[in-house]
Specification:
The protein has 102 residues and is mainly α. It has one domain. It has 4 helices and no strands. Helix 1 runs antiparallel to helix 3, helix 1 packs parallel to helix 4 and helix 3 runs antiparallel to helix 4. The longest helix has 31 residues. The protein is elongated.
């Protein structure tokens, strides 16, 4: 039983660190992109995505630094925000991907 609990603690710590790294990557990319690219591709504005990714970075970073590794629903939402940016917005505003009408 003790091994399972120890494994769970380290697993949650590792996942919180991964979420924090993903959020930092999303924030750095949002800062680097020109604001005109967001408007040109029909995405939300650059300040909108910078605010969301900054909040996601803050939540994931505080959870990772707390040591408990369990941020609950807030960390899950923050990781989803960062992943949505990286999967949808980043390819469109980088010029390497684009809008794919489904």
């Amino acid at each position: 039983m003790g091994f399972a609990l120890l494994f769970e603690v380290y697993l949650f710590r590792a996942l919180s660190l991964v979420a924090a790294v993903i959020a930092v990557m999303a924030l750095v990319d949002a800062v680097r992109r020109p604001a005109a690219n967001f408007v040109r591709e029909g995405k939300r504005t650059k300040p909108f995505w910078m605010a969301l990714t900054a909040a996601a970075t803050l939540v994931c970073g505080l959870t990772a630094l707390s040591g408990s590794g369990g941020g609950g629903i807030f960390q899950l939402v923050a990781a989803c925000v960062a992943c949505v940016y990286l999967a949808d917005v980043k390819p469109a505003v980088s010029g390497k991907g684009g809008y794919y009408p489904y």
